[in-house]
Amino acid sequence: MAQKVTIYDIAKALDLTPATVSRALNDSYEISESTKEKVRALARQLNYQPNRMASGLRSKRNKMIGILVPNIAYHFNSSAIAGIEEVLGAQGYRTIICQTHEKLDREIENLKDLVSIRVDGLIASLSAETLQLDHFQDLQMPLVFIDRVPIDDRFIRIHIDNEDAAYKGVQHLLQSGRKHIAWLAGPEGLDIAERRYRGYCRAHQEAETSIDPQLKIHFHFKPGDPYHRLRQTIQEKPAIDAVFSINDRIAIEALAAIRDAGKSVPQDIAVMGFNNESISPWLYPSLSSVSQPSFEMGREAALQLLGLIKGQKMQSRSFVFETHIVERGSTLPVLVKG
Amino acid sequence: MAQKVTIYDIAKALDLTPATVSRALNDSYEISESTKEKVRALARQLNYQPNRMASGLRSKRNKMIGILVPNIAYHFNSSAIAGIEEVLGAQGYRTIICQTHEKLDREIENLKDLVSIRVDGLIASLSAETLQLDHFQDLQMPLVFIDRVPIDDRFIRIHIDNEDAAYKGVQHLLQSGRKHIAWLAGPEGLDIAERRYRGYCRAHQEAETSIDPQLKIHFHFKPGDPYHRLRQTIQEKPAIDAVFSINDRIAIEALAAIRDAGKSVPQDIAVMGFNNESISPWLYPSLSSVSQPSFEMGREAALQLLGLIKGQKMQSRSFVFETHIVERGSTLPVLVKG
DNA sequence: CTGTTTCACGTAATCGATTACGCAAATTTC
DNA sequence: GAAATTTGCGTAATCGATTACGTGAAACAG
């Protein structure tokens, strides 16, 4: 096999036309079963692989879906992608995964590329820098947002109630007797983090506990930065008795910072993470976390996108998934000394 | 903008032919600078995005590269992909990331899809199930393997010396006084794990330490399985005084298993991981690990692939990267009581 | 002033599939 | 048994770009 085999090769060998071969391979009703068999047999024998460039050009559908996320190394994303691919793969769709690395310009650039590839649809999660959505506006393509979703309700959005999730997490900490809870928020301006902070505040207000704005700690998603920020804050605010972290990976650094500050978890300081990553049960102490169903959310995003592609009109534009607290060692209540 | 804009639209608006527009956009020498300016200006204004299906079909180059890895959630892979994308992105290439989830059939399926997309090249890492390479043989496309590479030296391979890396790791453990080292190998038949076991054995032989084959522990990459296997082994073999793990994530489960068995790290049992993931310094105790330059390896894979695509002949077919031991708390030598 | 290059662009074929339209033969309908 | 329908396939246009080849005008050479 020197050159790639095409439907013309198959047609010639079977004394048919390319049109017939194309229809046979697409299982068209206007081709007899016997011809289909012959075509399929020869296609298999010659190891024919259809040229998606050609079919996509003509049919304007190439069975490729773009996935645009901040970073595949984030647990939520790799897990959601697994869910997306499970649903989409079963329907014969391929995914093209693009990473923004939290940069707006890379988000725009990736978007242009996905347009130029003419993917059939797009599942996107906004970068930390994304404040407005011009580049998503007239995209001319089925689009579903997941996790980091915009406020704009013209889009289909798959997400959790971040405020409520944080509310529940902070409430749990407050109820176990904690009063000075640091919030490891991540980079400045991250929308989901702001929403969670609102939940943080609401839980405090309901518990009539005062809020210290200096316990809202920003940092970059860069190994070491969360650690140092928290260590510094612990030094400045020795009263801290709990830490709530935007994700479990950051919580690991928090555990280290607390330990190195000479305090212990959960006796002195409780720690609650977010996402319930697979390593969290094995940490020491095992990490309590707010769990969100990332795999299921990926599945739902894919299902909704398939709906859009097939032209169904969508009834609901926003799909809010439930979260729940996973209690582990890092938030065990302090035993009051008898 | 109701419909996607094409070079025909631009040509009509400027009273040119599509050919001229195409050449202008590709900065061809046979187009005057003034025409190029006009074409580029209008293209920008109309937000023209070239159709990669069309250009790819005609030119047989679509500036897309396939990346085929077992799982993007593995630290090595997401890190190597970052390196690949840094190099390839600068040259205008897009990547299509496919996951085999360690399954041979998914590897074959993904490969067919990448062929049908007619990607310009492929960077691949073999699945745990892959034993022979028929599906890679007559692929008709530039191909570079990374990390999980085949033995076949007709391929370009980017990897480490797994035997040597494990040798160094085990040697370090033996030199610090450990004698009964469990090897957390991962799933049965994983080539890199077998190579590392050879290094494990060589280090033992050179140190004239006996090898217990029952300390070679297999498991699935599924949360909990490594933990339970190790706990069981510790119970059966109480003499174990060190654990060497195929990666850091598994090592975290090992730390938990050791702890739950009532032993302490590093006093009773030392733990050494592999990959030096970004969370490893923050664990408790901080995790020693064999470090490999995954990002750099990704970069090199991309550079080699670009060379293949541009038709350069490659001098070396195998690029072996250096590894080194990162010593942290989990392998501190035991202090002999004075 | 004629012949040769060079410049800047047009003409048209091409990539490999899909699909609207057409049509003869086979089958069914009444 | 004539008309209507169905079956099974061919013809040719088409998707949007690239590119081999052609060409008129301007520039240049001798």
Question: What is the count of β-strands of chain A?
Answer: 12
What is the level 1 CATH name of the largest domain in chain A? Alpha Beta
Q: Enumerate the strands of the largest sheet of chain A in spatial order, edge to edge or round the barrel.
A: 2-1-3-4-5-11
**What's the name of the CATH homologous superfamily of the largest domain in chain A?**
Response regulator
Tell me what the CATH architecture of the largest domain in chain A is.
Answer: 3-Layer(aba) Sandwich
Secondary-structure element order of chain A, N to C = HHHHEHEHEHEEHEHEHEHEEHEE
CATH topology of the largest domain in chain A: Rossmann fold
* Helix content percent band of chain A: 40-55%
Assembly context of the chains:
homodimer
Radius of gyration of chain A: 26 Å
